[in-house]
Amino acid sequence: MKMLTRLVLGLVILVAAMTAPTPEIINYDSETYDATLDSSYSYENIPIGKAEVERVTVMPSGSRELLTPAPQSEEMQEEDEEEESTPGLVDGSSPQETEFTGVLGPHTNEDFPTCLLCTCISATVYCDDRELDAIPPLPRNTAYFYSRFNRIKKINRNDFASLNDLKRIDLTSNLISEIDEDAFRKLPRLRELVLRDNKIRQLPELPTTLTFIDISNNRLGRKGIKQEAFKDMYDLHHLYLTDNNLGHIPLPLPENLRALHLQNNNILEMHEDTFCNVKNLTYIRKALEDIRLDGNPINLSKTPQAYMCLPRLPIGSLV
Ligand SMILES: *[C@@H]1O[C@H](CO)[C@@H](O)[C@H](O)[C@H]1NC(C)=O
Ligand SMILES: *[C@@H]1O[C@H](CO)[C@@H](O)[C@H](O)[C@H]1NC(C)=O
Hints:
Elements: H1 2-19, H2 22-26, H3 30-33, H4 50-57, H5 64-67, H6 74-82, H7 114-117, E1 119-121, E2 124-126, E3 144-146, E4 154-155, E5 168-170, E6 178-179, E7 192-194, E8 212-214, E9 238-240, E10 259-261, E11 290-292
Parallel strand pairs: 2-3, 3-5, 4-6, 5-7, 7-8, 8-9, 9-10, 10-11
Antiparallel strand pairs: 1-2
Bound molecules: 2-acetamido-2-deoxy-beta-D-glucopyranose (NAG) (2 copies).
């Protein structure tokens, strides 16, 4: 019964996604979903329209055979070529591959195609608020993955394996307490990682390509971040670690960091060379203009030399 409800829900979402005008779908949260407009992601474009709707609505039952789209006829392929500019749904594989997973994406554990359960638009997979308790298998070309407000507890080493185009992962508001050490390490294009509002105790190894990290409101504590965890991230410009009971500022900070948010932690002190270089007074850390240390037991007045190289004083207790 649960399966059937999901199937119907999935169909409604899929059909709605296909019939609604594309810009409307994408703009429902323009601030975070802007990335989907990246027009360089032109996949094997399957026209949004009659052919697809028929293919999907023709299914009378939840049988797997019927969920797998039939191979395209020559006529349909011609149509595809004519409508190259229409944004297509994610196709989990190219037609050359023998393992044809089709427009609905790979099958989940419950033998259910990911793109019926979630909504796939171009290279973006939206699985927000779908009662998921694990990461669903994702289409090979997924670049942006949103799975916020679910019940995912663990991220496994294979969840994102071989997703070489993946650029953004957003798992805000799940129940994640455990992440396999190499779950993210081998993702060559990962830029943005958002894991805020979970129960993470230990941060795994992260790819150095990251530009934006938000792990706020987790349980990292004193030991959750490894030594020099962010050192080699030359492009990292936002590091948000608020509400984690951290005991110290993670060092060294990468040179291009612009924003460091550490409010509501348990940071008691810092060194004079946390940000600056006390031996070299000509050194300027010009990128770092947004440091938040409010909500920590630290007394910023104790280290007056520590801010000399910064464009702005950190926000926090100066008395
Ligand atoms: C001091 O810092 C400046 C600017 O980063 C650098 O050019 C210079 O080489 C440094 N001097 C020494 C002695 O490290
Ligand atoms: C903070 O440090 C300054 C300088 O050491 C000191 O004068 C001040 O009393 C301290 N404030 C608190 C609340 O401990």
